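Hi C.,

You asked whether I'd gotten around to modeling the 563-residue construct. I have! Everything is below, sequence then structure, no commentary in between.
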Amino acid sequence: MIEIPDEFASNRQVVRKDVEQRKIPRDLVTHPCFVEVAPPDISMPTGDADRLLATIGADWGYNKSLRLDAAIFPELQKTLRRGDWRVTAAVFQETGSTPIVTGLWPGLKEAIYGLTIDIGSTTIAAHLCDLMTGEVIGSGGALNPQIRFGEDLMSRVSYIQLNPGSQTELTATVRQAVDQLIRDTASEAGVDTDDILEAVVVGNPIMHHLFLDIDPTELGGSPFALALSSATTRRAENTLAALQPAARIHTLPCVAGHVGADAAAVALSERPYKAKKITLLVDIGTNAEIILGNREQILAASSPTGPAFEGAEISCGQRAAPGAIERVRIDRKTFAPRYKIIGVEAWSDQADFDKMTKKTPVTGICGSGIVEAVAELYLSGLLTEDGVMQPPPAGAERHFVQAGRTWSYVLHRGPVEISVSQKDVRAIQLAKAALYAGVRLLMDYLGTDEVHHVRMAGAFGSYIDPKYAMVLGLIPDCDLENVLSVGNAASTGARMALLNRKYRREIQTQVEKLTKVETAMEPRFQEHFVEAMALPHKTAKFLRLRAQVELPANIQKKRSRRR
């Protein structure tokens, strides 16, 4: 095996780590408590720890069950004396649990910190928060090094099954990556990692299990049983070396076998369970996680979209990295393409594009680019609703190349030729049909034929143009103004749980109420899948989309009238 460290790769993947700057009401699980402890008295031989606990209890209203974490004891007496008996104690208390002192500093400590960590199968994102203000003061992202054991989740489960004992290696690999990301993010923000007292971790079920050192092989086949579904809190010791041992790590609950804590975090961020109208949440990746409903009922499912949306299985596909085509437009008259690549502001038809791409050459096409390319081919009449590439119209031959009995549309000519083949179109059709079929199945369960609001989450969902997502038939018909990209909603939900204990209870309660639908066991899924292969759909009329976008049938009618 040859492994190239990410920092030395010439076209490193762009790890999307933006965070929504949402104001979150604070009801902290960890509180800093400044106290003045009475010095020892020979006539009253009470231990320093006992006097500290008694003072915190008296001054801050904690009951007699308050205790010290074991990691505090070794330096306790030195800390008290360095502060001249004035110290700041951090007290951790989840709802209904025993209060525990998890941090101690001499004098007045004005800032303590917490982290959110979103562990995806491809990338890991971290956000460092000032617990006293609620502000995000640092963000970091990295590739998940588990990729070397398998590109997708099921291949990693297969690796563990074929290599007994390897689960320990996968767990150590992801924990080391998280540790390094914590150190890097804290260093950039100028924060001592000993001052980070909490972390809220989310991820899909397999990443969740591997991070917690749980064998995920039961998730590899029906009935896709989770070892742990409820939220859990543990000490950082023996889990994350970058944090002090007494720090607490909280994981949000998993929804179902293929709908994880990251989906729960997205649900907490968008709170569809409080909405009057039906809302669809989709976190699009190798395995799309779907939540649909309103305050009356919420359903959840996952759909096996495959890796096409991440650039895999595409002839010129790649992950989102500098040089990847991410935006595509096709002229309706000349059928000439123009495009935009990651890392360059100009479009390909602008004067300074060639100059700007000398340092960042065109290297491939990423997920958002292939989605727009296929949708534009359809809107231009170059692709039928069944996804068949048409022979080039007169005058447009230079934009096509023939491959046997099929055609490929050329986006870019140069040292690396970038084109969209018939096989690429099929890969996107299969992926989008799987997602739409999963959504349609939940709509059946809910007894509705329409969705009022759509929220697309995750790194891929954040960079898809809602119009092209609907033209492709990736999502059901909806007013375009009600289709929004919500960015890294999983990290937002994790931050809500970090800053407010009530949100931890809220999402646990809502997950317990959710109705889980297993798409793999539903015969109607295949029926919906076949109909969803067409662009945008074989039977759904997409009337709202047609009112806002000219689909090929409408364009053809206008051309006929002009002739």
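If it helps when you're writing up: The chain has 16 helices and 22 strands.

Thanks,
B.
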